[in-house]
Protein backbone atom coordinates (compact mmCIF):
# COMPACT_ATOMS: atom_id res chain seq x y z
CA UNK A 1 0.00 0.00 0.00
CA UNK A 2 1.02 3.63 -0.38
CA UNK A 3 2.81 4.29 2.91
CA UNK A 4 1.71 7.93 2.91
CA UNK A 5 -1.84 6.73 3.51
CA UNK A 6 -0.98 4.76 6.66
CA UNK A 7 -2.50 6.14 9.83
CA UNK A 8 -1.30 5.80 13.40
CA UNK A 9 -4.63 6.01 15.21
CA UNK A 10 -3.22 6.54 18.69
CA UNK A 11 -0.20 8.57 19.75
CA UNK A 12 0.56 11.18 22.41
CA UNK A 13 2.68 14.27 22.92
CA UNK A 14 3.52 15.93 26.20
CA UNK A 15 5.66 18.67 27.60
CA UNK A 16 6.51 18.16 31.25
CA UNK A 17 6.58 21.83 32.20
CA UNK A 18 2.84 22.02 31.44
CA UNK A 19 2.33 20.27 34.77
CA UNK A 20 -0.98 18.55 34.05
CA UNK A 21 0.16 14.95 33.50
CA UNK A 22 -0.55 13.64 36.99
CA UNK A 23 0.18 10.03 36.10
CA UNK A 24 3.56 10.82 34.53
CA UNK A 25 6.13 10.71 37.34
CA UNK A 26 9.88 10.04 37.56
CA UNK A 27 9.02 6.41 38.35
CA UNK A 28 8.32 6.08 34.61
CA UNK A 29 11.89 7.04 33.83
CA UNK A 30 12.04 5.79 30.19
CA UNK A 31 9.27 8.22 29.17
CA UNK A 32 9.70 10.97 31.74
CA UNK A 33 10.76 13.66 29.29
CA UNK A 34 9.23 15.85 26.62
CA UNK A 35 7.76 14.13 23.56
CA UNK A 36 6.87 16.51 20.75
CA UNK A 37 6.28 16.39 16.98
CA UNK A 38 9.95 16.79 16.11
CA UNK A 39 10.69 13.61 18.07
CA UNK A 40 8.05 11.55 16.27
CA UNK A 41 8.34 12.77 12.67
CA UNK A 42 11.52 10.80 11.83
CA UNK A 43 10.00 7.62 13.23
CA UNK A 44 6.84 8.08 11.18
CA UNK A 45 8.95 8.38 8.05
CA UNK A 46 10.94 5.28 8.89
CA UNK A 47 7.82 3.27 9.71
CA UNK A 48 5.97 4.42 6.60
CA UNK A 49 3.19 6.24 8.46
CA UNK A 50 1.76 9.37 6.87
CA UNK A 51 -0.63 10.72 9.49
CA UNK A 52 -1.69 10.29 13.10
CA UNK A 53 -4.48 10.76 15.58
CA UNK A 54 -3.16 12.67 18.60
CA UNK A 55 -4.84 11.50 21.82
CA UNK A 56 -5.11 13.26 25.18
CA UNK A 57 -2.81 12.31 28.03
CA UNK A 58 -4.04 14.81 30.63
CA UNK A 59 -7.47 15.42 32.12
CA UNK A 60 -7.53 19.12 31.25
CA UNK A 61 -9.13 21.23 28.57
CA UNK A 62 -5.89 23.20 28.44
CA UNK A 63 -4.04 20.14 27.15
CA UNK A 64 -6.70 19.68 24.48
CA UNK A 65 -6.12 23.23 23.28
CA UNK A 66 -2.36 22.57 23.35
CA UNK A 67 -2.87 19.50 21.12
CA UNK A 68 -5.09 21.41 18.72
CA UNK A 69 -2.34 24.00 18.34
CA UNK A 70 0.20 21.24 17.64
CA UNK A 71 -2.17 19.87 15.00
CA UNK A 72 -2.40 23.29 13.38
CA UNK A 73 1.39 23.50 13.22
CA UNK A 74 2.06 19.90 12.10
CA UNK A 75 0.10 18.63 9.08
CA UNK A 76 0.81 14.96 9.84
CA UNK A 77 -1.58 15.24 12.82
CA UNK A 78 -4.86 14.43 11.09
CA UNK A 79 -7.06 14.74 14.16
CA UNK A 80 -7.13 15.24 17.92
CA UNK A 81 -8.97 13.21 20.54
CA UNK A 82 -9.24 15.56 23.49
CA UNK A 83 -10.75 15.74 26.97
CA UNK A 84 -13.55 17.63 28.66
CA UNK A 85 -15.07 17.28 32.12
CA UNK A 86 -18.20 15.26 31.40
CA UNK A 87 -19.57 16.15 34.85
CA UNK A 88 -19.19 19.92 34.46
CA UNK A 89 -22.25 22.09 34.31
CA UNK A 90 -20.86 23.84 31.24
CA UNK A 91 -19.73 20.71 29.40
CA UNK A 92 -22.01 21.40 26.42
CA UNK A 93 -20.61 24.91 25.97
CA UNK A 94 -17.02 23.73 26.43
CA UNK A 95 -17.52 20.98 23.90
CA UNK A 96 -19.04 23.39 21.39
CA UNK A 97 -16.07 25.74 21.80
CA UNK A 98 -13.56 22.96 21.21
CA UNK A 99 -15.54 21.40 18.36
CA UNK A 100 -15.43 24.71 16.50
CA UNK A 101 -11.87 23.69 15.69
CA UNK A 102 -12.07 21.15 12.83
CA UNK A 103 -9.01 19.38 14.22
CA UNK A 104 -11.05 17.93 17.07
CA UNK A 105 -12.35 14.49 16.05
CA UNK A 106 -13.11 12.88 19.41
CA UNK A 107 -13.06 12.98 23.19
CA UNK A 108 -11.72 10.62 25.82
CA UNK A 109 -12.53 10.71 29.52
CA UNK A 110 -9.90 8.77 31.48
CA UNK A 111 -12.33 6.08 32.60
CA UNK A 112 -9.63 3.62 33.63
CA UNK A 113 -8.71 5.97 36.50
CA UNK A 114 -12.29 6.43 37.79
CA UNK A 115 -13.08 4.09 40.72
CA UNK A 116 -16.76 3.68 39.86
CA UNK A 117 -16.93 0.93 37.23
CA UNK A 118 -20.33 2.17 36.01
CA UNK A 119 -19.48 5.88 36.01
CA UNK A 120 -20.13 6.14 32.29
CA UNK A 121 -23.78 5.17 32.83
CA UNK A 122 -24.60 8.03 35.21
CA UNK A 123 -27.61 10.02 34.00
CA UNK A 124 -25.84 13.34 34.65
CA UNK A 125 -23.46 12.53 31.78
CA UNK A 126 -26.26 12.36 29.20
CA UNK A 127 -25.81 15.99 28.02
CA UNK A 128 -22.15 15.29 27.28
CA UNK A 129 -22.84 12.17 25.25
CA UNK A 130 -25.69 13.86 23.38
CA UNK A 131 -23.47 16.85 22.59
CA UNK A 132 -20.82 14.49 21.22
CA UNK A 133 -23.40 13.07 18.84
CA UNK A 134 -24.51 16.58 17.83
CA UNK A 135 -20.92 17.57 17.00
CA UNK A 136 -20.04 14.29 15.26
CA UNK A 137 -17.30 13.44 17.76
CA UNK A 138 -15.94 9.96 18.37
CA UNK A 139 -15.96 8.57 21.93
CA UNK A 140 -12.62 6.89 22.71
CA UNK A 141 -13.20 4.40 25.54
CA UNK A 142 -10.12 4.13 27.75
CA UNK A 143 -11.32 1.18 29.80
CA UNK A 144 -10.22 -1.97 31.55
CA UNK A 145 -11.84 -5.40 31.21
CA UNK A 146 -14.06 -4.71 34.24
CA UNK A 147 -15.71 -1.85 32.35
CA UNK A 148 -16.80 -3.87 29.32
CA UNK A 149 -20.35 -4.75 30.48
CA UNK A 150 -21.06 -1.08 31.24
CA UNK A 151 -19.52 -0.04 27.92
CA UNK A 152 -21.82 -2.43 26.10
CA UNK A 153 -24.80 -0.88 27.87
CA UNK A 154 -23.56 2.59 26.97
CA UNK A 155 -23.30 1.59 23.31
CA UNK A 156 -26.90 0.38 23.38
CA UNK A 157 -28.03 3.60 25.07
CA UNK A 158 -26.40 5.84 22.42
CA UNK A 159 -26.55 3.95 19.10
CA UNK A 160 -25.70 7.12 17.15
CA UNK A 161 -22.46 7.72 19.06
CA UNK A 162 -19.34 6.51 17.23
CA UNK A 163 -17.30 4.55 19.78
CA UNK A 164 -13.74 3.23 19.76
CA UNK A 165 -12.29 0.72 22.20
CA UNK A 166 -8.79 1.84 23.14
CA UNK A 167 -6.03 -0.77 23.50
CA UNK A 168 -8.45 -3.69 23.19
CA UNK A 169 -9.61 -2.86 26.75
CA UNK A 170 -6.13 -3.68 28.05
CA UNK A 171 -6.21 -7.49 28.23
CA UNK A 172 -4.31 -8.95 31.22
CA UNK A 173 -1.64 -10.50 29.02
CA UNK A 174 1.07 -10.47 31.67
CA UNK A 175 -1.20 -12.25 34.15
CA UNK A 176 -2.13 -14.88 31.61
CA UNK A 177 -5.84 -15.47 32.33
CA UNK A 178 -7.49 -14.09 29.21
CA UNK A 179 -10.74 -16.07 29.39
CA UNK A 180 -12.97 -13.43 31.07
CA UNK A 181 -11.59 -10.71 28.81
CA UNK A 182 -12.13 -12.85 25.71
CA UNK A 183 -15.74 -13.55 26.65
CA UNK A 184 -16.50 -9.87 27.25
CA UNK A 185 -14.77 -8.80 24.02
CA UNK A 186 -16.72 -11.36 22.01
CA UNK A 187 -20.01 -10.05 23.39
CA UNK A 188 -19.07 -6.39 22.87
CA UNK A 189 -18.04 -6.98 19.25
CA UNK A 190 -21.12 -9.08 18.51
CA UNK A 191 -23.64 -6.75 20.13
CA UNK A 192 -22.32 -3.32 19.17
CA UNK A 193 -20.80 -1.62 16.11
CA UNK A 194 -17.77 -0.55 18.16
CA UNK A 195 -14.36 -0.23 16.55
CA UNK A 196 -11.20 -1.42 18.33
CA UNK A 197 -7.66 -0.07 18.42
CA UNK A 198 -4.81 -2.52 17.98
CA UNK A 199 -2.57 -0.59 20.33
CA UNK A 200 -1.14 -0.59 23.84
CA UNK A 201 -0.75 -4.36 24.00
CA UNK A 202 3.01 -4.38 24.47
CA UNK A 203 2.59 -2.37 27.65
CA UNK A 204 0.03 -4.80 29.04
CA UNK A 205 2.26 -7.75 28.15
CA UNK A 206 5.54 -6.16 29.20
CA UNK A 207 6.84 -7.69 25.99
CA UNK A 208 7.02 -7.06 22.26
CA UNK A 209 7.33 -10.77 21.47
CA UNK A 210 4.80 -11.74 18.82
CA UNK A 211 4.34 -15.14 20.47
CA UNK A 212 3.31 -13.45 23.71
CA UNK A 213 0.90 -11.08 21.99
CA UNK A 214 -0.61 -13.45 19.44
CA UNK A 215 -3.49 -14.86 21.52
CA UNK A 216 -4.85 -11.39 22.29
CA UNK A 217 -4.38 -10.09 18.76
CA UNK A 218 -5.98 -13.17 17.19
CA UNK A 219 -8.99 -12.84 19.47
CA UNK A 220 -9.46 -9.18 18.57
CA UNK A 221 -9.21 -10.02 14.88
CA UNK A 222 -11.66 -12.87 15.23
CA UNK A 223 -14.11 -10.74 17.23
CA UNK A 224 -14.04 -7.43 15.36
CA UNK A 225 -12.61 -8.30 11.94
CA UNK A 226 -10.18 -6.05 10.03
CA UNK A 227 -12.89 -3.57 9.04
CA UNK A 228 -13.38 -2.68 12.72
CA UNK A 229 -9.74 -2.64 13.83
CA UNK A 230 -7.27 0.23 13.49
CA UNK A 231 -3.56 0.18 14.25
CA UNK A 232 -2.07 2.56 16.78
CA UNK A 233 1.39 2.92 18.27
CA UNK A 234 0.51 4.29 21.72
CA UNK A 235 3.82 6.13 21.37
CA UNK A 236 5.59 7.19 23.50
CA UNK A 237 4.02 4.94 26.15
CA UNK A 238 5.15 1.97 24.07
CA UNK A 239 8.74 2.99 24.78
CA UNK A 240 8.34 1.49 28.24
CA UNK A 241 8.69 -1.80 26.34
CA UNK A 242 9.82 -1.19 22.77
CA UNK A 243 10.47 1.45 20.14
CA UNK A 244 7.95 2.75 17.62
CA UNK A 245 9.64 0.81 14.85
CA UNK A 246 9.74 -2.41 16.84
CA UNK A 247 5.98 -2.32 17.50
CA UNK A 248 5.36 -1.55 13.84
CA UNK A 249 7.50 -4.55 12.86
CA UNK A 250 5.88 -6.88 15.38
CA UNK A 251 2.48 -5.86 14.05
CA UNK A 252 3.53 -6.93 10.56
CA UNK A 253 4.37 -10.35 11.97
CA UNK A 254 1.08 -10.61 13.86
CA UNK A 255 -0.95 -9.66 10.76
CA UNK A 256 1.08 -11.63 8.23
CA UNK A 257 -1.71 -14.15 7.60
CA UNK A 258 -4.19 -11.50 6.54
CA UNK A 259 -4.86 -10.50 2.96
CA UNK A 260 -3.33 -7.28 1.70
CA UNK A 261 -6.71 -5.54 1.65
CA UNK A 262 -7.33 -6.54 5.26
CA UNK A 263 -3.99 -5.16 6.40
CA UNK A 264 -4.72 -1.93 4.51
CA UNK A 265 -7.99 -1.68 6.41
CA UNK A 266 -6.20 -1.98 9.75
CA UNK A 267 -3.37 0.39 8.84
CA UNK A 268 -5.50 3.03 7.17
CA UNK A 269 -9.10 2.44 6.16
CA UNK A 270 -10.71 1.90 9.56
CA UNK A 271 -9.11 4.97 11.13
CA UNK A 272 -9.99 7.16 8.16
CA UNK A 273 -13.62 6.04 8.17
CA UNK A 274 -14.02 6.26 11.94
CA UNK A 275 -12.46 9.68 12.47
CA UNK A 276 -13.47 11.15 9.12
CA UNK A 277 -9.94 12.08 8.08
Q: What does this entry show, briefly?
A:
The protein has 277 residues and is α/β, with parallel strands linked by helices. It is 41% helix and 12% strand.
CATH class: Alpha Beta
Question: H/E series, N to C?
Answer: EHEHEHEHEHEHEHHEHH
Q: Which percent range describes the beta-strand content?
A: 5-15%
Distance between the termini: 18 Å
Low-confidence spans:
none
Q: Residue-averaged pLDDT, rounded? A: 96
- Class derived from helix and strand content: alpha/beta
Strand order of the largest sheet: 1-2-3-4-5-6-7-8
- The number of helical segments is 10
C-alpha-based Rg, rounded? 17 Å
List how many beta strands DSSP finds. 8
- According to CATH, the homologous superfamily is Metal-dependent hydrolases
* Biggest beta sheet attributes: 8 strands, parallel
Stated plainly, the CATH topology is called: TIM Barrel
Reported CATH architecture: Alpha-Beta Barrel
* Percentage of residues assigned to helices: 40-55%
Number of domains: 1
Anisotropy-based shape: globular
Amino acid sequence: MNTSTRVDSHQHFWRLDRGDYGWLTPSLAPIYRDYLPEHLAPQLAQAGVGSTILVQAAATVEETRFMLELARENPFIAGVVGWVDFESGDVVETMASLAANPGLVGLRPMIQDIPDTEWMLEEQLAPAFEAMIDHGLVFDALVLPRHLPALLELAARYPDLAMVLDHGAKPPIAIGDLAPWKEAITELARSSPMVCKLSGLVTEAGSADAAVLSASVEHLLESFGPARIMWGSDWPVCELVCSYGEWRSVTDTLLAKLRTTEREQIFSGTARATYGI
